[in-house]
Write a structure and sequence with these properties.
- The chain is an alpha+beta fold.
- It folds into two domains: 224 residues, Creatine Kinase, Chain A, domain 2 (2-Layer Sandwich); 86 residues, no CATH class.
- Helix content is 45%, strand content 17%.
- It contains eleven helices and twelve strands.
- It has an eight-stranded antiparallel beta sheet, covered by helices on one side.
- β10 and β11 form a beta hairpin.
- α8 packs antiparallel against α9.
- The protein starts with a strand and ends with a helix.
Length: 327
Amino acid sequence: MKKSIIKTTIILSRNMDMYPFPAGLTYEASAEVEGIMTQAIRLVEQKIKEIKLVGLDEEGKYALFQDGIIPYSMMHNRIHSSIIKTGSSLFYRLNNEDHLEIVNTSLMEDPLLLWDAVLAKEEILAKTLNFAFDVKLGYLTSRITEVGTGLRVKVLLHLPGIVRTGYIKKLTQAVHQVGFSLKEYTRQGHLFKKEFYELSNSLTIGKTEIELIEGIKELVERIEKKEMDALETLQSAQDKVLEDELYRAYGTLQYARLLSYEEGIELLSKVRLGINFGYFEGISMGQVDALLFSIYPKEETYKKVQVGKKEEMQRAEYIRAHLYGHQ
C-alpha cells in the first residue's frame, strides 16, 4: 500500500463531431447533445441514475460538488447538462467543458484498473457516437492540453515529509521537466494544508493513454520513495518534538468543540502523518481521508455569509463522532 496516495482519478473527454464545444452551444443545441449522449449511455449501462442540472436547486448542485461529482463551475452552467451515475465508482458528465466526460475515481492505487473500466465504456460508446477526431492531432477537446488522447490522470498525494524537509520545490521542478505537473491541492479557492499535492499529466499529444498512465505510476513510485526517506529523516531528527506535535493534533481533534475548515484540515494532516508512524491505533488512513472531503464548508460559508460558530461546532462534532466514536 502506498501511504502517500489519497485518491486517483481518471477523466476521459470526448466531443461529438458537427457540434461546437459546450461553451459555444446554444441552449437548444445543448439539449440535443445531452439527449444523444444519454441515449447512448443507456445502451451501455444496465442501471443508471440521471441527474439533470437544469431545474436542480442550489442545494442539490452543491451536494454534487461536495461529493466531487461536478466542478464548481458546472453548478452555474446555463445550458443543458447532466450527471449520469452508475452502480460503480464510474460516472458520466454531460456538457461540462466537453460534451462527454467519463470519470472514474477511487482510493485504489493502480490507475490502470480505473482506465480499463473507462476504456471499456468508451469503446462501446464510440460505435454509436461520432467523436471529433483529427488524423494528425487525435481526439479534439476544449482544452488544448488534452488534445490527443483526451485523458486526464490525477493522483492526490499527502507529502508531509517532502514538504517539511524542504524538498518540495525541487521535486515540483523535476516533475515538470518530464511532462507532468505537481501542484498544491485546492478545492474551489480553499487551499488544503500545504502538504497535499495533486500529480497530473500536462499534455496528451504524442503519447498513448498507457504511456501517460505508466508515466504517472512511475512518478508516484519515485515520489513515494522520497516521501518515506523524508519521513525517516524527520522522525530521527525531531524525535519527541514531532511526536508531541502529532499527539497534540490528535488530542485537539478528540476534544475540540469548535473547528474551522482550515484548522480541521491541518489537524487531520498531522493525524494522518501520525498514523504513518504507527502512533494512533484504532484510526485508519481511510477514516482520515474520508473526513478530508466531508468537512468542506457549506455553501453559505463559501459565499462568505456570516454563519457564526454553528458550522465550526458541527464540524468538531462530526470529526469526533467519525474518528473517536463519540460526540
